[in-house]
Design goal:
The structure is a homodimer of 360-residue chains.
Chain A: E1 2-8, H1 37-45, E2 54-59, H2 63-69, E3 78-81, H3 86-101, E4 106-109, H4 119-133, E5 138-143, E6 154-161, E7 164-171, H5 176-185, E8 188-198, H6 199-209, H7 211-222, H8 229-236, H9 245-255, E9 259-264, H10 274-281, E10 290-291, E11 297-301, E12 307-310, E13 315-319, E14 324-328, E15 332-337, H11 344-353
Parallel strand pairs in A: 1-2, 1-4, 2-3, 5-9, 10-12, 11-13, 12-14
Antiparallel strand pairs in A: 4-8, 5-8, 6-7, 6-8, 7-9, 14-15
Helix pairs in contact in A: 3-6, 3-7, 3-9, 6-7, 6-9, 7-8
Family (chains A, B): Belongs to the mannose-6-phosphate isomerase type 2 family.
EC number (chains A, B): 2.7.7.13
Domain MannoseP isomerase/GMP-like beta-helix (chains A, B): 305-351
């Protein structure tokens, strides 16, 4: 049985106006169903766990929304960070809390804002990672690259071990030339930020490479069910290093030969923008229009390959337009070509510079 | 002094979703200011009249909106038709009501849904028409064609008379070949449905060509200030011919040599669709984007020549799009290329066929 941790953070600026500071990507229903990415992630990890062993780590700003979207996750399993301290603190805290309950538990960590449509295939891969994790390796799950994407870090595979491989190295996000090399080389996978390990092994590595962080999360976890928790949080949390789990633990552990990797034999999507969303959710008919489930209706005539999000309860009518993004929300509307989906970020920047905090 | 009549009817289907059955074109602020077309028309005719001599004829469905948009028009001057009976009945009724008050009055009739930006030039032309109308001609005002438009009827000029011409004939909306001929011939003007006449002369012609209609509007006008008006309306109005003023009076009168025409030396626009609206209102800057004054804001980046109507109080953000129509209303949104502006009518047809009476 897995202890499944879902870190729920990040914003998703390129998904404006659906995503906002107060309504980040993981809370949005970008799954082709009414489920949010967070809900879909939790449903998926439940295939490997039981409800009492599912944890979410999130910020204070989103605690209420997370609690309401996930009524079946026990309140004690929703770990609310007083302020964001990056992934080493978030995942370290979860590992320490789990270790208090079960010192030899196997824990997995899966980001709340990724989309996986085939839950069974996902579970099968995670089980392979659990098998290797039980031998004492810190496991990652790598994604078979569908192309030379420069938006991801890469994992370089070493020697085979059981159902996976030693991880030879974490590789930074490459330039285009390097990305093409990696994909044609065949021994590189995308780093999707999915981890599986025994909490005792992980905490040992954390203690070795980031002792202060280790001690702090251990102290917090030990006081988890006590009245002193709040005061300890106020005292310790602001002192923690802001550092990613990759830098803090995984890279030094990989250098020491302690990290393994299992290739993910499942579809996996980092739905970062509306064009990608359209590719992932696919059209229901031969017009190629993708209508993301929302509160409104659509009437699309002589229009093709558009991505339409009717999220304001209104009719969205389009006539004679192709390859557009149309996102309708109660206080803002976006119209933009699909091939410029990345540039939505710039619009949000303009709004920030104009102090339109009501809209970002 | 002119008695100015403003028939306020018509729908404006190609201006959906701004225009609806319950919110026709003439009630909409398509003037580049906060004024509706109706308000702008009434402001314009006031240059020639005084407030007590301005009349509006409209349907029961729009009486309340007309009354509220025009608080300065006397209640008795807003003639409310119980049901639509086309323009001969509407204009005939107005003429008869004016004749009751002043039997030799000069009356002008100007549609509520046309846009004229230069009111002084308009007034100057109307004064020329009044001069000829006082001699006993039924006058029309023709528009110098800006091109071979097949969407208008044409006026063929005859011999010069005073500051205008005899009207030789009304010509039906032509095909493209004929339209090109008319424009190059130089003696054709667009029929813009603007009329100026002495009410006694007009009513005499109405009596000659449509005696039943004449008698009915005379009877109604005579009872206008009496308690019997409502009963008479209920009895007579449904029996009236549904016929346009052109067919009922102007064409037969022209055949008898009793119609004159003055060329309109003013800009004139039948703003029938959003592309035309964009051409008429013109862009405020070199991006060529036209933002029609609405309740919402816009953020248009790397976007050119779009016509944007932010009428839902929301932000309309567009990035990297050109030559689009974006119309944002509280219950429906339209996105369509400007060169397909005419086809908006087809969208409305689809909604009607789907029984979406809430949206049309």
């Amino acid at each position: 049985m897995l202890h499944a941790v879902v870190p729920a953070g990040g914003s998703g600026t390129r998904l404006w106006p659906l995503s906002r500071a107060q309504r980040p990507k993981f809370l949005l229903p970008l799954t082709g169903t009414d489920s949010s990415l967070l809900q879909s992630t939790v449903e998926r990890v439940r295939l490997l766990s039981d409800p009492d062993r599912v944890y979410v780590v999130t910020g204070a700003a989103h605690a209420v929304d997370v609690a309401r979207q996930l009524p079946d996750v026990p309140g004690d399993n929703i770990l609310v960070e007083p302020s964001p301290r990056d992934s080493a603190a978030a995942i370290g805290l979860a590992a320490a809390v789990i270790a208090e309950r079960d010192p030899s538990a196997i824990m997995g960590s899966f980001a709340a804002d990724h989309l996986v449509l085939d839950g069974e295939a996902f579970a099968k891969t995670v089980r392979k990672a659990m098998e290797l994790a039980s031998t004492g390796l810190l496991m990652t799950i790598g994604i078979n690259p569908s192309g030379p994407d420069t938006g991801f870090g890469y994992l370089r595979l070493g020697a085979p071990v059981g159902p996976g491989y030693q991880l030879e190295a974490f590789v930074e996000k490459p330039d285009q030339v390097s990305a093409v090399e990696y994909v044609s080389a065949g021994n590189y996978l995308w780093n999707a930020g999915m981890f599986v390990w025994r909490v005792d092994v992980f905490l040992d590595q954390l203690a070795r490479h980031r002792p202060a962080l280790h001690d702090a999360v251990r102290t917090l976890a030990a006081a988890w069910d006590s009245t002193g928790r709040e005061a300890l949080f106020a005292q310790l949390w602001p002192t923690l290093d802001r550092i990613s789990i990759d830098y803090a633990v995984m890279e030094p552990a990989a250098a020491a030969g302690k990290v393994g990797v299992v290739p993910g034999d499942f579809d996996w999507h980092d739905v970062g923008d509306y064009d990608t969303l359209g590719q992932v959710l696919k059209a229901a008919d031969k017009t190629g229009n993708v209508v993301v489930r929302g509160t409104g209706e659509t009437l699309l005539t002589e229009s093709k390959r558009n991505v339409v999000v009717p999220a304001a309860g209104r009719l969205v009518a389009a006539h004679g337009v192709d390859d557009l993004i149309i996102v309708d929300t109660p206080d803002a509307l976006l119209v933009c070509p699909r091939d410029r989906a990345q540039e939505v970020k710039a619009l949000v920047e303009e709004l920030k510079q104009a102090n339109r905090t009501d809209l970002v």
